[in-house]
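can u do me a favor
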């Protein structure tokens, strides 16, 4: 039976009926003329399903914070049809066995493509390279490798990993944090960290690693991806590298597009994240870089933590915040409403480019006949107040509690099957 997204506006353009059958878009028919199961989408905006390059699903090991199933639910409700599950689980995803386990859990949940990220080094230890080839050739077909949470700081190891992943068109996604410059770091280093008496995380600790890595990527001719870029200086380094033809891509998180370090004055650990919230100047530079394409993608860095890991004093609290269910609204508030990104450009940054970076061939398709029907339908005129208890994630650590944000995900189709209808799991 065909499904019909009736009267929907692809990329905000003229209304049509998008007809979906057997998992693909079979027709873009005049509005009101498509036949099949009608999904009312009158006046809503259709985009290709979002692809997240950076998601912590916590399984195996921290199922009290999130599971592949609960994280998949949060993803579908956020309009995602694909997430990349970070490797810092317990056990670490550093073998074919663990990545296949995560991949299978994703298949069983069946709500989004769960693409496991493989660790670069054994146990994220930063000393010995993990079995990258075995993970690439496993059923999980890993293409993205990252020690996220930790930086691959050893230059020789980083070089070897970059060289190695070329064999299967992989990419190393670096968590850029020079460890010695950030020992015990608690927040952005600056005037405010001095005043609050919290150890600083200086911008140079991120920028120095990115500068080294783009030069390494150029030297060996390998693809490098920079995780969660957070400073204006990092943007400048990436812009310089791209102008020189270095095969580097980069992502920014929703929270680094909207929140600033001033929130730390509350000492509320809900705002504790790594890399830390930065200054308003950094936020402006990140928005500009996402708009001009220097930064390729929005990636959530969705980092669920149970109550006890966040409800404690600042220094003891875990780093990270939820992101899947609020990413679209933050992107709308920071990029679409101010006119920095069109709907088509937003689709590029949240679907097309991240799919390409992760080499996910079934995702990030334009909304055309023959494309795999991974589709999100959003209501740009809606707004909502964020309530942590209303989120599908197993954790509650959203920094947006009580904030009113624009936009709402109404329907999500994953490979032609509705996973979300009218804002609820189908
Ligand atoms: Zn990270």
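np, heres the sequence
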């Amino acid at each position: 039976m065909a499904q019909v997204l009736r009267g929907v506006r692809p990329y905000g353009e003229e209304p049509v009926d998008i007809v979906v059958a057997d998992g693909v878009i079979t027709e873009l028919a005049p509005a009101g003329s498509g036949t099949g199961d009608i999904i009312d989408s009158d006046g809503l905006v259709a985009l290709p399903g979002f692809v997240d390059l950076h998601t912590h699903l916590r399984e195996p090991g921290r199922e009290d914070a999130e599971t592949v199933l609960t994280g998949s639910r949060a993803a579908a409700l956020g309009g995602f049809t694909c997430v990349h599950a970070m490797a810092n689980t317990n056990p670490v995803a550093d073998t074919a066995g663990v990545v296949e386990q995560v991949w299978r859990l994703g298949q069983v949940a069946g709500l989004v493509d769960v693409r496991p990220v493989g660790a670069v080094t054994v146990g994220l230890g930063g000393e010995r390279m993990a079995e990258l080839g075995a993970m690439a050739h496993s059923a999980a077909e890993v293409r993205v490798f990252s020690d996220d949470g930790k930086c691959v700081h050893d230059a020789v190891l980083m070089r070897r990993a970059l060289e190695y992943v070329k064999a299967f068109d992989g990419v190393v996604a670096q968590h850029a944090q020079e460890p010695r410059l950030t020992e015990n770091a608690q927040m952005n280093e600056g005037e405010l960290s001095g005043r609050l008496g919290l150890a600083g995380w200086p911008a140079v600790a991120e920028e120095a690693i990115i500068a080294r890595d783009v030069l390494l990527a150029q030297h060996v001719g390998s693809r490098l991806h920079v995780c969660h870029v957070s400073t204006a200086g990092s943007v400048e380094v990436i812009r310089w590298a791209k102008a020189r033809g270095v095969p580097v891509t980069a992502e920014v998180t929703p929270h680094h597009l909207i929140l600033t370090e001033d929130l730390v004055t509350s000492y509320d650990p809900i705002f504790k994240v790594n890399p830390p919230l930065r200054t308003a100047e950094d936020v402006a530079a990140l928005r500009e870089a996402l708009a001009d394409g220097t930064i390729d993608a929005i990636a959530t860095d969705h980092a669920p933590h149970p109550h006890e890991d966040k409800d404690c004093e600042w220094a003891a609290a875990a780093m990270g915040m939820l992101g899947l269910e609020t990413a679209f609204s933050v992107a709308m508030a920071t990029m679409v409403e101010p006119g920095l990104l069109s709907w088509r450009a937003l689709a590029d940054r949240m679907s097309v480019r991240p799919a390409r970076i992760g080499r996910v061939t079934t995702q990030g398709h334009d909304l055309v006949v023959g494309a795999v029907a991974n589709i999100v339908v959003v209501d740009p005129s809606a707004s909502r107040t964020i309530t942590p208890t209303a989120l599908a994630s197993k954790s509650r650590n959203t920094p947006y509690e009580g904030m009113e944000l624009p936009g709402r995900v109404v329907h999500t189709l994953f490979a032609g099957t509705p996973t979300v209808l009218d804002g609820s799991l189908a």
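The first helix runs from residue 68 to 77. hope that helps!!
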